[in-house]
TrEMBL record:
A Pfam family hit: Omp28
SUPFAM superfamilies: Thioredoxin-like
Protein's name in the database: Outer membrane protein Omp28
CDD domains from the UniProt entry: TRX_superfamily (cd01659)
Length: 352
């Protein structure tokens, strides 16, 4: 009898230990969640634009898919919201037994939006041009003082000269500015940079001051093999008419001797291993600009200009490519400009 009781007790003990071991294997300590909060992709939106909402725990875990999101008290399907009405929306989230603080997001008509103001300098230059290093030096001085200036070097080659980087499709632009001789720098396309340019850095910088523009640009590009896909988005915060867009493809870090009659760069002539940056290689548009539809340039609108093309054969290194896009008015003056490296995706530079 005792033997039978011992066997029963032993079996019972084994079962209990197995159960405890099993529980120990499956038991996980779950950290307590003390709170949740909402994260929006933007603090303000223009009517018609999408507001994306995510729910995070205080520990930083994204629990959006397990949460309920309410906009103005109504349950939202998914985690995106848009409206055609101007005003402030109130958003809150619930997860388990927790509620977030209320997040308020303003939807506006876009008219109060201002964009970062940038300026364009087009430098008409040449490797053969002995006085051209003067403008190149001035560009360096400007670049040291501001990140808001976009530079383009347009290499020209009049009769009797040679330049490996000559851009032969700029005759229409030369006719527009109607200013013979080299070098010459033009600010925002139509204002000539005063001579001597290194002593007039402030003239260029002044174009970044004053009222901020009511349109901004964002460039996105992707290269696959020899194929380039490029999008230029333009956002408007007032109504515009008769606008045009210009898109350049530039190449940096091109090394070639530069004739030099100046005292800059050590006064050496020629400057061997001179590095030519911001060199215009191709235009994705007419050099004087392609029209932007008046229907697309209204307050709150975003116009997307798309381009697909093969890299020009003269490109030496695709990693040194940059794009420049700018919008000009009916007087051929630049309203705003943006540059971008390749394989980048920009957002609009909206001022808070």
């Amino acid at each position: 009898m005792k033997k039978k009781s011992f066997v029963v007790f032993t079996s019972f003990l084994i079962v209990c230990l197995s159960f405890l071991y099993s529980c120990e294997e499956k038991y996980e300590i779950q950290e307590s969640i003390t709170g949740i909060y909402l994260v929006a992709n933007e603090n303000s939106r223009i009517v018609g634009q999408t507001l994306e909402l995510n729910v995070n725990t205080d520990a930083g875990e994204n629990v959006t898919d397990q949460s309920s999101i309410f906009v103005n008290g109504e349950l939202l399907e998914g985690n995106t919201f848009t409206t055609d009405e101007v005003g402030i929306v109130s958003v809150r989230a619930e997860y388990l037994n927790l509620s977030s603080e209320v997040l308020e997001v303003e939807f506006s008509d876009g008219s109060e939006v201002n964009f970062r103001k940038r300026a364009l300098v087009e430098d008409y230059t040449g490797t053969w041009c002995g006085w051209c290093p003067r403008v190149a030096k001035a560009i360096e001085l400007v670049d040291e003082q501001s990140d808001d200036i976009v530079f383009v070097a347009i290499h020209r080659s009049p009769s009797g000269t040679q330049d490996p980087y000559v851009y032969g499709e700029a005759d229409a632009l030369e006719n527009l500015i109607n200013t013979p001789g080299y070098p010459k720098g033009f600010i925002n396309r139509m204002t000539q940079w005063d001579f001597p340019e290194p002593d007039n850095v402030g003239q260029v910088l002044s174009f970044t001051q004053g009222a901020n523009p009511k349109l901004g640009l964002a460039i996105s590009s992707e290269i696959s093999g020899n194929q380039v896909d490029l999008d230029v988005d333009i956002q408007f915060s007032q109504d515009f008419q008769n606008l045009r867009i210009v898109v350049y493809l530039l190449e940096n870090a091109l090394v070639h001797p530069q004739v030099n009659y100046t005292a800059y760069y050590g006064g050496v002539n020629p400057v061997e291993n001179y590095v030519h940056d911001h060199t215009l290689r191709a235009t994705m548009t007419n050099i004087l600009g392609d029209p932007i539809s008046n229907e697309e340039s209204l307050t709150g609108s975003i116009s997307t200009q798309s381009y697909s093309f093969n890299l020009p054969s003269e490109i030496e290194n695709a990693e040194n490519i940059e794009f420049v896009a700018f919008v000009i008015d009916e007087n051929d003056e630049v309203i705003n400009v943006r540059k971008s490296e390749i394989n980048a995706s920009q957002t609009f530079e909206i001022l808070e």
